[in-house]
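Action item from last week, closing it out:
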Amino acid sequence: MFVLSKLLLIAILPLTWIIIFLGWALVTKSARLRGKLLLTGFILLYLFSVPLLLNTYAKLWRYPVAQLQPNAVYSCAIVLGGFGSEKKDGSGYFNVNSDRFIQGLKLKTTKKVSHLLITGGNASINPDSFSEGRWVGGELSAFNMPDSCILIEGRSRNTIENAAYTKKLLLARHLPPPYLLVTSDFHMRRSMLIFKKSGLDIIPYPCNYVAGIEKQGLYSLLPDANTLRYWDYYIKELIGFFVAMLHHY
């Protein structure tokens, strides 16, 4: 199912269908069909590359932000992986989702939480020995944080496993709920569903906003390459959300 979900995602991405329509137009011998395929391909390319449509969808998809209690100190911030990637030499680096790490670190250093839990393993179809969680644990040592306040989960491959393994760690350490769930804005709705279905009492702490927060102007009607890429995130989340609804815990 893990491999199948990866392949299914590729099949439903907008860019995949744009390439299919435009590529089909290049090889077909029918001039009439070629025109329809080109028109369809370019319409899809425009719709999925203009910020206006993406920003509108992102606002509707956004999970409501909860207000934290001003003087409360929560027992743990659960920081979901996906912000650390593997280099060719097997070492790690912080990718475009690194705001998850920054916000988790901020919560700990400002004493809003007493513990940090990093959850994430290796989500590759053919995983090697690299574990995002273990790599991040090493990076945290540079901030001189005591090991007693750091929990590392380095086996999970997806959000469902994030929740399952995280729950075991929290119960083993007897950390009381509620917990702060730190992840990207676009990923929060699916994450909240999965963690709640796992029986964890959590408070959303979104970060790493990629759409839906800037003012809309005429520029939002102009094609943008990043917009096309960001649609991949949201479509993945939508499919994952429905899969999570059907998943038995």
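Closing note: The first strand starts at residue 77 and ends at 80.
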